[in-house]
Amino acid sequence: xxxxxxxxxxxxxxxxxxxxxxxxxxxxxxxxxxxxxxxxxxxxxxxxxxxxxxxxxxxxxxxxxxxxxxxxxxxxxxxxxxxxxxxxxxxxxxxxxxxxxxxxxxxxxxxxxxxxxxxxxxxxxxxxxxxxxxxxxxxxxxxxxxxxxxxxxxx
Length: 155
Fold this sequence. Notes:
The chain contains five helices and six strands, in the order βαβαβαββαβα. By secondary structure, the protein is α/β, with parallel strands linked by helices. It has a four-stranded parallel beta sheet with strand order 1-2-3-6, sandwiched between helices. It has a two-stranded antiparallel ribbon with strand order 4-5. The termini are far apart. The model has no long low-confidence stretch (mean pLDDT 78).
């Protein structure tokens, strides 16, 4: 790859300034921000400019499995807690919310993957306990099965 720009976090640059025709864009994030409007704006801009774009969703395996038990307090790594707007959230009896959490997570991943497919972009889910080479290989081959990393849920 040549002329590759790697972006991360929620601080996506102004794409009109940052990228030139022919660039490849690889965005690394958990993509769990409440700012979906900004994400859609960014993806639409990248699509309109015909930039080869890849989204790599980085996720801790514990977040993907959500196999916690008992009372757990979650805190955002930078004072935020994604998708809630609060700095922290206490779950009592986490096993009681596991099914809904995994259902929501799978829906989020499907939505992100759909956004990418609509625009001709690639989407990869990269668990943080696996080598990054797995994501790079999946991007090169244009294939990934993100749901393989998230447990099935039964009602």
